[in-house]
Amino acid sequence: MRKILALVIVSLFVACAPPKPTGPAPISGRAVIPATWTLRSRPVTGRHAMVVSAHPLATQAGVEILKKGGNAIDAAVAVGFALEVVLPDAGNIGGGGFIVHRTAGGEVTALDYRETAPAAATHNMFLDAGGNPTDKSEIGHLASGVPGSVAGMYEAWKKYGSLPWASLIAPAIRLAQGHVVDSARSRDIRSDRELLARFPASRVQFLVSDSAPPPGATWRQPDLVRTLQLISDSGPEVFYKGQIADMIVAEMQRGGGLITKDDLRRYRAKWRTPIKLTYRGHTIYSMPPASSGGVTMGEILNILEGYDTLPAFGTPAYVHIVTEAMRRAFIDRNRWLGDPDFVDMPLERLLSKSYAATLRAQIDPTHATPTPPQPAAGEATHTTHYSIVDSMGNAASVTTTLNGGFGSGVTVTGAGFLLNNEMDDFATAPGKPNMYGLVQGEANAVAGGKRMLSAMAPSIVLDSAGNLQMVVGTPGGPTIITSVTQVILNVLDQHMSLPDAVAAPRIHHQALPDQTYYERGGLSDATVRALEAMGHKMEQRRGTSGIIAAIAKTAGGWVGVADPRYAGGALGF
After folding, report:
1. Across the strands, what pairs with 276?
2. Structural Rg of the chain based on CA atoms
3. HSE (CB half, 13 Å, CA atoms) of 364?
């Protein structure tokens, strides 16, 4: 195991001169968190169980189920349906997602209920006559893949649930009958008012006199109440074969979309073998393809594990080495990964420690390595994640998405829920960037019935003795992978408490565009100048990176942390 060459010398900070190799040296020093960074987490403790989600009311729905004797999957179903009601820009029954679940006995499973392309989807359907991408993969009816959330939640409940199905949807129905809109959700609707106003059913569902419901208003969603009651009474059959399926197909026909009754009838959630990683004696389980989250995070961690110790948090040395690991992992992600039912992927090689050693050897300890041209052969921040641990020790890490905020913008007329715009998560134009700047290859090209590649990375971390240590995940498009990775690094390498690990500023690099993004105020000016002197192209993000929902084991039970970047909620008992 080699040591990182010392990177931080006085002249680097003062004059920002290019760093000079000084030979092997131990990495030490204090974390560099600028005074301008003011985010602080508010941890919540619970002796028996914990739920953390992006909305306090959804969190309460999960705790309500746990207190009735439900387990982690029962609570996950309740939270998922509740988020459809109270967090419509991300919570969904018109999208899809992933669950990584660990039983108290140690069994770990992964459920893929990612959306699929309609059978009529074609390779070049989102290109104009000149071969350039259009916005039809982002907005409107063509942007939607076949939803998987209802099938996925039912499949998880059928395998692991303990309470009656209808009891799990009851909190969501109650919330849809009327709940008070808080300022964060009013602001979310207001920020996407223009998108929602483009589609008649969305305008009716979300806007009051063409404006967002004001904070403090009671929001009633009668169409959604009927939809949820139908699902409560009949399960997924009504969504994929019955009355709701008919409404989805009618909406597609109304707007020129492709989803048919046969597409809905054929949809299946799939159990996958979770990605199993080891890092400094810990075991990490995450999501396999059609998610890229577990594989890409695994590559990053494998590269970093080869250093005896990592530099202090926030220093140029730390940002440089983590960025270079991210760069190499995303190059592989963008080239190799896709739907395992369509693409052969060299996962064993990508996740091997020997391959990581090869990548690590390419890292220049004093200079950035430009990303090479990618062969032409997402999820927004309004994806949502929730973490649950029940009183028996079962854990669920769940990430679901509509992709962009409010998805395609299309609400199913008469049904009260939005449809996703996940078709943009394909490489709609291989070799050209999608809405999140990702440049991807043919492995993730559009094809009928195919699952688009995701960045979602719901994860479960075990300690060196094999005991549950942490449940973690986030929304954030490609920053999902880097955000989850950094929280794990903050806990395991930087020895931060979970609240500090979640609140700490984050960076992101995704190979192309060849830029290192950092949160506003998250790096000191001296660190930025030093990294630029090393050849990094630094860019301050306009917003934040990720919205972590995490749980960690403590001596007294559990601590839950909802990311201070957003108005979520943690609740335990």
Report:
1. 285
2. 23
3. 12
Alpha-carbon distance of 407 to 195, in angstroms, equals 10
Tokens describing residue 167: 């009891």
Integer angstrom CA distances of residue 268 from 158, 218, 241, 280, 401: 14, 36, 13, 37, 17
* Strand spans (E) along 307-378: none
What are 519's two structure tokens?
């949160």
Cα-based distances in Å from 45 to 79, 245, 498, 559, 562: 19, 42, 12, 4, 12
d(CA 131, CA 136): 14
- The one catalytic residue in 116, 315, 383, 411 is 383
Are the CB atoms for 487 and 379 separated by under 8 Å? no
User: Per the structure block, which two tokens stand in for 323?
Assistant: 């960025």
Cβ proximity of 49 and 390 under 8 Å = yes
- Spatial distance between the Cα atoms of 188 and 170, rounded to a whole number of angstroms: 25
The label of the residue with tokens 């964060």 reads 184
* Distances from the Cα of 259 to the Cα of 120, 199, 526, 533, 537, angstroms: 8, 18, 52, 51, 42
Tokens describing residue 432 = 């050209």
The one-character DSSP state at 198 is T
Q: How far apart are CA 68 and CA 78, in angstroms?
A: 12
Q: CB–CB of 418/88 below 8 Å?
A: yes
Q: What are the start-end ranges of the E strands in 161-222?
A: 179-180, 218-219
Is 383 considered catalytic here? Answer: yes
Copy the structure tokens of residue 342.
């369509």
CA distances from residue 392 to 323, 444, 472 in whole angstroms, order as listed: 39, 39, 19
Any bridge partners for residue 549, and if so which?
473, 562
- Phi, psi (deg, nearest 5) at residue 572: -135, 175
Sequence-distant (6+) residues with CB within 8 A of 8 are 19, 29, 311, 315, 316, 317, 530
CB contact set of 245 (below 8 Å; sequence gap of 6+): 238, 239, 261, 264, 265
Say how far apart CA 454 and CA 99 lie, in whole Å. Answer: 13
From the list 72, 67, 69, 59, the residue with the least C-alpha distance to 104 is 72
User: Going residue by residue through the chain (573 aa), what tens digit of pLDDT does each one get?
Assistant: 333 333 332 233 223 333 333 322 333 468 999 999 999 999 999 999 999 999 999 999 999 999 999 999 999 999 999 999 999 999 999 999 999 999 999 999 999 999 999 999 999 999 999 888 899 999 999 999 999 999 999 999 999 999 999 999 999 999 999 999 999 999 999 999 999 999 999 999 999 999 999 999 999 999 999 999 999 999 999 999 999 999 999 999 999 999 999 999 999 999 999 999 999 999 999 999 999 999 999 999 999 999 999 999 999 999 999 999 999 999 999 999 999 999 999 999 999 999 999 999 999 999 999 999 754 334 445 799 999 999 999 999 999 999 999 999 999 999 999 999 999 999 887 766 665 666 677 899 999 999 999 999 999 999 999 999 999 999 999 999 999 999 999 999 999 999 999 999 999 999 999 999 999 999 999 999 999 999 999 999 988 999 999 999 999 999 999 999 999 999 999
Element (H, E) at 333: helix 316-336
Q: Which two tokens stand for residue 168?
A: 């799990």
Length of the chain: 573
